[in-house]
## 1
Amino acid sequence: MMLIDGKKVSTDLKNELKTRVEELKAKAGCVPGLTVIIVGEDPASQVYVRNKAKSCKETGMNSTVIELPAETSQKELLGKIEALNQDPDVHGILVQQPLPSHIEEYAVTMAIDPSKDVDGFHPENVGQMVLGNLDKCFISCTPFGILELLRRYDIETRGKHCVVVGRSNIVGKPMANLMLQKLRETNCTVTVCHSATQNMPELTRQADILIAAIGRANFITREMVKPGAVVIDVGINRIEDPSRKSGFRLAGDVDFDNVAKMTSAITPVPGGVGPMTIAMLLKNTLQSFARSHNL
Ligand SMILES: NC(=O)c1ccc[n+]([C@@H]2O[C@H](COP(=O)([O-])OP(=O)(O)OC[C@H]3O[C@@H](n4cnc5c(N)ncnc54)[C@H](OP(=O)(O)O)[C@@H]3O)[C@@H](O)[C@H]2O)c1
C-alpha cells in the first residue's frame, strides 16, 4: 500500500510556485494578489482563511483578508466584490463558505468576475471545464488538487472505473466530470453515487479509483472497497476527542484503519487532499495573474 502524501506534494508545489511567482513578478513589474472575504465568525472558516493567507504570503504573493460582520447585507457584500472586480491589483477573489443564511450563495458566485474566480465556482468556469477547455477556466481547487496527486503519483487512470461518492457542486460534480475528461491523469469510466443511490457497496466495490466526498466519518468501510483500489478521501469530519487539547480530531470519510491495508494507494486525513486544496488555490491565483498580463 502506498500512502499518498498530500502534505509533501503541496509543499513541493508551493516551492515550485514560489519560483514561478518570482519570474512572473519580474516580467510584469507587479505582484499577484489574492483577496479572501469572510463574513461572520465561523471558527473553522477562520482557520481556513488564515491558512490561505499564510500560504499565499509564503509563495511571495500579496494576500488580503476582508473580515465582514455576520450582519453584512448581501448588497454590501456584492458591492465589495464589484470593487475587487475593478481592482487591477487583485487577481483572485474568494468568498469563504458557508455564508450567513440571509446571503444567497448563488448571487455571490455570479458576482465574481469569472477571470478572478480562483475557486472555479462561476458557471462560466464550470462550463468551460465541462467542455474540456481546461486552459480557459479555473478548476475547483479540491478536485484540481486530486488530479495533481494522481499525476504526481503516476497513478494509472486511463480506462479505469472511477466511482465518486458525493455530488456537491464544489467537489463531487466537478470531480466526476474531470475524471471523465481525456487527460493523462483522468480518462476514466465514471459512476457517481449519492444519498439516493441503491446498492452503493455493489458500485463502490467495482471502483479501481474510489473518491469519497460525503462528509460522514468512516462511511466507506472495508466491505465497500475492491482489494487493490486507489482510494481518495476528501472528507474532513470533526470527531469529539477529549484527549486532545482542541477537544476533537479529524477523520475522513473512509475507515482508514481497516481500509488502508487492502488498497494499492490511499490518501490519509489529515495530510492527504486537504493541503492540496490551498496549493491549487495559489496555482489558480498565479494563473489569473499570468493571464491578466499575457504571460
Ligand atoms: N479536503 C478538502 O480540501 C475539502 C474540500 C471541500 C470539502 N471537504 C470535505 O469533503 C466532504 C464533502 O464535502 P462537500 O462540500 O462535497 O459536502 P456536501 O455538499 O454536504 O455533499 C455531500 C455529498 O455526499 C452525499 N451523501 C451524504 N450522505 C450520504 C449517504 N449516506 N450516502 C450516499 N451519499 C451521501 C450527498 O448526497 P445528496 O446530494 O444526495 O444529498 C452529497 O452529494 C466534507 O467532509 C467536507 O468537509 C474537504
## 2
Amino acid sequence: MDLPEGRMALTVTGRKELAKDICEFTLARDDGAVLPSFTAGAHITVETPGGAMRRYSLLNDGSAPTSYVIAVKREANSRGGSASMHADVREGTVLNVDPPENEFELVEAPKYLLIAGGIGITPILSMARHLSAEGKAFRLIYCTRTPEETAYLDEVSSFPTATVHHDNGDIDDFYDFWDHFEKPGAEHVYCCGPAPLMEEIKALSGHWTEGRVHFEDFAGVDVVREDDVPFTVTIASTGREIEVPADRSILEALRDAGEKTVSSCESGTCGTCKCRLIEGEADHRDLVLMDEEKDDYIMICVSRAKSGDLVVDL
Ligand code: FES
C-alpha cells in the first residue's frame, strides 16, 4: 500500500529496556541512508502496531541522522499506543513514521533551565546533550518517583549542573521549584513532563515575561479510561452511525469503519482532529478547545460522549 506523502517505513534496529516500563527504540532505513534532519526538541509521529499515531521526542543527534532514537514509557491505561510499542515492537519490526517536526525548539539565550518529569526527559536530554556539546550554560532538574523508574539516570547525573530528585510518589517530597522562579532571570525555561508538573511550573512562572517558559505537553492525556462506556456517533453529512466501543476513541472507531480522518498527536493537544459537534453532550478531554468552543466542537482523538450519543460533522 502507498504511504501518505513524507511518511517513511523504518525498521527497528535496536530495542533496549532503560528502566521499569521504559524502552528505547532505534529506527533506520533498510539501506542505512540518511534520514530527514532535525534539531533538539523535535519529535517524530509513529504509527504503532496497534494502529494509533503517537508522537515521540527524538534523542539522538539530528544533523545528518542515519537513525531515529526514541524512548517510550508504557502508560498504565494504554491500549493501542505505548502498550503496543512495548508488546509488539521488536528488532526487525517495520513502523510507519512521519518526518521530524519541532514545536519545542531551543531559542538563543544566555542560559537555560531544563525541567523534566518522568519520560518527559526525552526532549530535555536531547537539549542537554546539544547545549553541553555547544558549551552553553544550562541547569537541568529531573524529577521521577524512584531510581528504578528513571531512564538515562547515569547520563543525566553526569552533567555537572544537573539535579535528579526522586519523590517516591510522596506529595510532601515534590521538588520545590520556587527558588528558580521567584526572581525572573535571563534564562529560557524548557519543561516537559506530566500535567501536574507543567501546571506547577505554569503557576510559578506567571510573573515571567511571556515567551520565556516553554512547554512540551503531548504526553498528558488518557485516551481511554477504565470506566468508559460504548456509544454511537452519527456522521451528520451521511447519516452513517458508527459504534464507538468502550476501549476505542471516536477517531479510532471512525478509522476502523473506513471513514477518512485527520490526526496528529492523538492525545488532545494539537488541534488537528477538531470536528463540529452537531448534537449531544461531549465529555471534553483535550487541552485545546476554549470554553466558548465546547458546545460546537469536539476533539475526536480523546473526547467522548458524556451521556447518550453524538452527532458530528467530519
Ligand atoms: S489529533 Fe491532536 S488534538 Fe486530536
